[in-house]
Write a structure and sequence with these properties.
Blueprint: H1 2-17, H2 29-53
Length: about 70
């Protein structure tokens, strides 16, 4: 009995968080598009933050052509 109750609670929790029982976004198209833009901007900001943490946003010091490097 406890197993089934735990499964039921888990399913209800997961279904509620994914937007199955309650919609994740508004039904109004204007408001929904604004919410989707905010969501995508948050994901983009998260990617920028991840690249900044791992120093992937730094410019490359490799040049596409040979450079002399000395004083001419």
């Amino acid at each position: 009995m406890r197993k089934w109750l735990l499964i039921l609670v888990t399913v209800c929790t997961l279904a509620g968080s994914t937007g199955c029982l309650l919609p994740g976004y508004s039904a109004d198209p204007t408001r929904r598009s604004q919410q989707l833009i905010y969501t995508s901007e948050n994901l983009r900001a998260m990617l920028d933050e991840w690249e900044r943490i791992w120093f992937l946003d730094q410019p490359s010091h490799l040049t596409p052509h040979s450079v002399h490097g000395g004083i001419i």
